[in-house]
Amino acid sequence: MGLLDWLGGERRDLSPEETFSFSNPAGWLRGALGGGTTFAGVRINASNALNIAAVYCAVRVLTDMMGATPAITYRRLARGKERAREHPVFRVLHRRPNPEMTPFTLKEVAQGHLALRGNAYMEIEWDNAGQVANLWPLPPTTEPFRFNGERWYRTEIPRTGSTTTPVTLPSYRVLHIPGFGFDGLKGYDPITLARESLGFTKAADEFGARFFANGTRVSGILSTDKVLSKPAFDALRESWTLGQEGLSNAHRVAILDNGLKWEQTSLSPENAQFLESRQFQLDEIARWFKVPPHMIYNLLRSTNNNIEQQSLEFIRDTAQPWFVRWEEALSWDLFVGEERDTFFVEFLMDALLRGDSAGRAELYKALFQVGGASPNDILERENMNPVEGGDRRFIPMNMVPLDRVDDALDRAPRGAENRDFTFPLEDR
Question: What predicted TM-score, i.e. pTM, was given to this entire model?
């Protein structure tokens, strides 16, 4: 049963203090919609922050990372694990989370909410057997609160036109993935924390646009010793605007008569270190989102060697914590009771290394040589079909226990003592 069906059923009445109204929104919603004015004089919120190219790119790095990495449901074994393909959660996370979205899209949307709002919310639709049927994204403005010692969530769903209907959901109906700074209810809002930094960047963007709109000319004063009448003043201003402002008039020579003088009153962009400031802000935004500068196409100090190292550090220091955050939330909220001891969700981080063929080859070689993987195990990881007899695992015979060296040489082909020879594990 989804939200639209649930609206017509029973719901728990809340106290008047907890009543939620979109005609008189709370402070959290006003802040989310309007943002706050920064010292740079511009408003910053999660919506207009995406107009900043570096922010958009950094968010896309995180959303693409999460969307492209498969989330697999596993069953714990006495030793190891196996894919639980028959479990409904496997279908929801790996095949179709709901009738309208692919797994990539759902994870992309939720990670975008996490990157910009600090929290991701999804409605859990349960079937009559108590299993997860669908996952639906909820607005990032969803607000958790406590009532009578229990956690609830205020949210809204779209109706006809632009109207919405407020609803309140119990915690078992909501999958909540909080970001950094979880205080027991929700994570910190990254855009609010970075508002001043992003405000400076947005102000620099606006300054650059206005600078070119004014014909790449800085502000100044036209002065004269004569007294100008109102018509003469208006005519002079109109003439100057038409002749000097705009890109089409850039670098035109101004001809002044009637004793007019031009006096420059502001610094040039070069003197104001405009370009250096914009470069610094790229690094600043990369810090806020914890992505390497080259991933937002800031290649000023990048080389082939350090890009490779930074990419590996990104997987270890940025991607892995996000995946763990997701895995723990999914493994707890999507399973019930004793299922939590048997089933869990894990992301296939190997998918992030698909482009590194040399690194994968070295890994497979190492696993094969210690009997950690069979040929078919390797083929499966590479999305290739298995081969007959490929399930056997092998180890090199040049590494055997000391007390079995003579036995190994007796069984080896002639001359094997002078070269490496590989045997199946079961024939050791």
Answer: 0.69
